[in-house]
Amino acid sequence: MARPDRSIDPRIIKSAEKEFLANGYEKASLKEICQKAQITTGALYKRYKGKEDLFCAVVADTVAALNAVMEEKCSISVEKLSDEELVTAWEMNASTLWWFQFLYEHRNGFLLLIKCAEGTRYSDFQHDWVEVMTGKSYEYFLETRKRRLTDASISRDEMHILLSAFWTTIYEPFIHGYGWEQIKEHCKLICDLFNWRRVLGFPSV
C-alpha cells in the first residue's frame, strides 16, 4: 500500500507564503503556488477551498499567537492591580521591545497580515488590531482616573487615534524589511517619541 505524501501540505504552505509575500493576496497566482510546490491544482483544492482559505492557513499560526497574547492581556482584571502597576503599565521600553521581539519571531505571517491581506477577511487587520488594543488600554486609563491617579481627559476615540499612530510605528519597520538590529534602534526612537506618562497626565519620574 502506498504511503501518503506528508510533505505536500508543508510544501503548499511554504510556496503560498512566498507567493503571497511577493505579490500580495489579490495578485498571487494559485498556478504559481502549485508549480513551485510541485503539486497539481487538484491536490491543492483537495486541501483548501480556494485562495483565501489557503491564505488563512498560511497566517493561522501567527493569528493564533496574536490572539493568545491578547486573550492573556484582556484577562487581567484592572481593578485588582495596584496603583503602581496601573501607572507602570504605560512604561515603554521593556514592553515595546517585547512586542518587537514577538512580532519578529512571527514576521512573515505578521507582514502578510499588515501588507498583503487586501481581499481577504484580514483586509482591515491593522485597524481591527488597534481597536482591540484600544478597548483594554482605555480600561486601564479609566481605572487610573477612577483612582484619581490622573485628571487627564481623553476620549475613547482619542485613545484609538493615539494607538493607531503608535502601532503604525510598529508596523512600518516590518513593511520596510528592517533587520533585528535596525528594529532595536527603531524601538529606542519610538520610546522617545511616545511619552505616555505625560500624555496621560501621570507624575514625572
Automatic annotation (TrEMBL):
Tagged with keyword Transcription regulation: yes
Domain of life: Bacteria
Taxonomic lineage from the root: Bacteria, Bacillati, Bacillota, Clostridia, Eubacteriales
GO molecular function: DNA-binding transcription factor activity; transcription cis-regulatory region binding
Portion annotated as DNA-binding: 29-48
Protein name as annotated: TetR family transcriptional regulator
Family annotation (SUPFAM superfamilies): Homeodomain-like (SSF46689)
Keywords, in A-Z order: DNA-binding, Transcription, Transcription regulation
